[in-house]
Structures are given as structure tokens and as C-alpha cells.
Amino acid sequence: MGEMVFRQVDLSTEEVDALEARYVPLTEAVRELVAATILSNADDDVVAEALAAVREVTAKLSASVETDHSGVNYNGAGRSWNWGNAGSGERNAIAPPIDLKTNPDGSTYADLVLGAAYEGPPGHVHGGVSALLLDHLMGVTASQMSRPTFTGTLTLRYRNPLPLGPIRVEGRVAREEGRKVFVEASITGSDGIALEADGVFITPTWSPSLEATQN
Ligand SMILES: CCCCC/C=C\C/C=C\C/C=C\C/C=C\CCCC(=O)SCCNC(=O)CCNC(=O)[C@H](O)C(C)(C)COP(=O)(O)OP(=O)(O)OC[C@H]1O[C@@H](n2cnc3c(N)ncnc32)[C@H](O)[C@@H]1OP(=O)(O)O
User: Fold this and answer.
1) Where in the sequence is the signal peptide annotated (predicted)?
2) Which of 83, 138, 203, 208 could be 179's S-S partner, Cβ–Cβ 3.0 to 4.6 Å?
3) Superfamily, domain 97-214
């Protein structure tokens, strides 16, 4: 298997928070750009102008790029960050805008609004996006932020179409057997419950290799 490194980085929590604060507004603006690109009725001139402007700003940001993935990082205080995570990356405009909360009993939930960029059936959420949200939330629920867990089996029941708009995703650990964590979850939309899911998340025998770095 390819090497999988959870990287310890020598940054204070304040420095990580400052980096996040620098980029989160940009990420949100890029999400708005994605929606505007889908929905715009602009004429040729305006689209050409937008194309040139986007290329220019992308070149500026790309000038300081050093790696091809941002990885899973953590510092000595246990603050972890995963800017590019496809399910939740704070700097990933492609990720759904999920802000996951953990209850005192370890169950989790997230309230979010899915717009035009997440459409599948007309006016409704793409089934793969629902699966992404559930995989992510259920993985975090299984990990309890203290151990790596990998999706082993994820079973989804699409009970009703999920309208675009406000949704709630929730999950909880049902039981554990050795390295297997059984998680149950659901997605509720404006018409009520749309999906139910259960999954087996597995803590691998191998420990992720840790690599201290200076950056
Ligand atoms: C140290 C620093 C850590 C720092 C970080 C700390 C914490 C992390 C914090 C936060 C984490 C945050 C977020 C998590 C975010 C997102 C979650 C997204 C999750 C994903 O998106 S993740 C990517 C997709 N995922 C994969 O990329 C998995 C590929 N796969 C494998 O890597 C292996 O396949 C593996 C490991 C799954 C199993 O391998 P293995 O060798 O350990 O398994 P083994 O054969 O020993 O079986 C042991 C027992 O599990 C049963 N079992 C085996 N496989 C099963 C399966 N598939 N389904 C159901 N049950 C299964 C057997 O039946 C047996 O059960 P029994 O003991 O009862 O017989």
C-alpha cells in the first residue's frame, strides 16, 4: 500500500487558526464563484472577462504552491487540520460546507445548506454527495478524533429524494467489536428523512507513520 503519513507539524494552534482564518473567506468566495458559474446568464464579454480574471488570480496563488496534496497534519497540542479533505476541507471549495459538531455523548451532527453545485435530480441533492457527507460524518464519528478509522463497508438507503437547501446529517456509534466500529447515520431535509446509513469503520492494524517536520 502507498505510504500514508499523518504529519506532525511544528505550528502553534494560534498559527494554525490564523492560517485557517486567512483562507476560509477565500474558500467561501470560490464556492460563490462556482455557483455563479453554474447559474450565470452573462454574455460573451462578461464570461471572457471572468475567465481572464480567474486565470490571473489562480496564477498568483499557484506561485507559492509547494506540494500536490495538503495531507492530514496535527500539532503538539492535538490540533489537526486537513485543508484539502474532499468531505470537509476548510480550504476546499469543492467540499460541501460542513461544520461538524460533536455532542458530549460522542454523537455528531451538522447543519448545512446545499445549493446548485450539489444537484443531481432536478432541484435535489446528488446521491453521491449524500454518500460523501455520510462517509465523512460517520468516519469522524467512528474516529472520535483520537484514532484513525477507515471506511470498510458503507450501506445507504435512499428513502426519499433530498431537496437542495437546508439539511441535517447526524450519526452515532452503535457498537464496537475489536477494531470494528459500527456507525449509524441519517440525512434529513426540508421534506423529512431522506437517507439512512450504517457502516463498518475499521482501525487498521498498522499505525499511521508519524513524521515530524520543521515547516
Ligand atoms: C497517529 C496519529 C493519528 C492522527 C489522527 C488522529 C485521529 C484522526 C482524527 C480524525 C479523523 C478524521 C476524519 C476521518 C475523516 C474521514 C473519514 C473518511 C473515511 C474514508 O473515506 S477512509 C477511505 C476509504 N477506505 C479505505 O480506503 C479502506 C481501504 N481498506 C483497507 O484499508 C482495509 O481493507 C481495512 C483497513 C478496511 C481492513 O483491513 P484489515 O487488514 O485491518 O482487516 P482484517 O482482514 O484484519 O479484518 C478485521 C475485521 O474487520 C472485518 N472487515 C475487514 N474488512 C472489512 C470491510 N471492508 N467491511 C466490513 N468489515 C470488514 C473483518 O471481517 C474482520 O472482522 P472479524 O475480526 O470479526 O473477523
Assistant:
1) none
2) 203
3) Hotdog Thioesterase (3.10.129.10)
Identify the DSSP state of 123: T
Please list the residue range(s) of the chain that carry CATH number 3.10.129.10. Answer: 97-214
Measure 144 CA to ligand 1 centroid, in angstroms: 14
pLDDT in tens, 59-97: 999 999 999 999 999 999 989 999 999 999 999 999 999
Contact 142, 198 (CB under 8 A): no
Whether ligand 1 lies within 6 angstroms of the CB of 180 is answered as yes
Residues 198, 120: Cα–Cα separation, whole Å: 22
Instruction: Tell me the pLDDT tens digit for each residue of 168-207.
Output: 999 999 999 999 999 999 999 999 999 999 999 999 887 4
pTM of the model: 0.92
What is the three-class DSSP state of 145?
coil
- Whose CA is closest to atom 34 on ligand 1? 152
Q: Which three cell numbers stand for residue 99?
A: 461544520
- Does ligand 1 lie within 6 Å of residue 75's CB atom? no
Lowest mean pLDDT among 38-47, 91-100, 104-113, 202-211: 202-211
